[in-house]
């Protein structure tokens, strides 16, 4: 029995489940802002300390750029693997807009992240204001202006390369 295989024993147990940073329960989702794992009760921004403090500091800046009403970026979980994230920002220009009056269009983008054997679905709410709505197919008004500027530079380079 000289060639018998001896099984190895590990000294430390392997913990494959992540823990909530607030209450040490099993973490079901990770915050998209601070990338820490939280349980269903602490996943919303108002319930965990890193993002709640940041949101309190930015509360005077989180207002609709058209009417000035306070907006509340939020994230919540419906189930253990289904999470919703709403930044209340226009995807085109990046400014805060209110949901009721000045959001011209709203849709969802689903991102699936695999963590071990479990997959998490993060639904990001994509919204556009009145200015960016006509340009939503190219990414909003900022992308439209960038595209026009790049085309103008290319045309100018071609013109001046052939001009004596």
**What is the count of β-strands?**
6
> Which structural category do the helix and sheet elements fall into?
alpha+beta
Unreliable stretches (pLDDT < 50, length at least 5) are 12-16
Query: Hey, roughly how much beta strand do the residues contain?
Result: 15-25%
Q: What general outline do the C-alpha atoms trace?
A: extended
Give the biggest beta sheet.
Answer: 4 strands, mixed
Give a description of the structure:
There is one protein chain. The chain is built from two helices and six strands; from the N terminus they run E-E-H-E-E-E-E-H. The longest helix is centred in the last third of the chain and has 22 residues, at 141-162. The model is unreliable at 12-16 (pLDDT under 50). The protein has a four-stranded mixed sheet, with no helix packed on it. It has a two-stranded antiparallel sheet with strand order 1-2. The chain has a domain at 58-131. It has 164 residues and is of the alpha+beta class. The chain is extended, with a radius of gyration of 24 Å.
């Amino acid at each position: 029995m000289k060639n018998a295989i001896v099984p190895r024993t590990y000294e430390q147990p392997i913990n494959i489940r992540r823990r909530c940073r607030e209450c040490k329960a099993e973490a079901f989702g990770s915050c998209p802002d601070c990338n820490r794992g939280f349980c269903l009760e602490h996943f919303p921004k108002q319930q965990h300390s890193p993002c709640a403090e940041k949101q309190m500091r930015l509360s005077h800046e989180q207002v609709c750029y058209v009417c000035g009403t306070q907006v509340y970026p939020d994230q919540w979980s419906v189930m253990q693997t289904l999470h919703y994230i709403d930044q209340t920002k226009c995807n085109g220009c990046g400014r805060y807009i209110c949901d009721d009056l000045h959001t011209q269009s709203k849709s969802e983008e689903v991102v699936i992240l695999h963590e071990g054997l479990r997959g998490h679905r993060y639904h990001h709410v994509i919204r556009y204001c009145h200015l960016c709505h006509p340009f939503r197919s190219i990414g909003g008004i900022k992308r439209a202006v960038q595209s026009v500027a790049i085309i103008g530079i290319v045309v100018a380079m071609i013109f001046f390369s052939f001009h004596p």
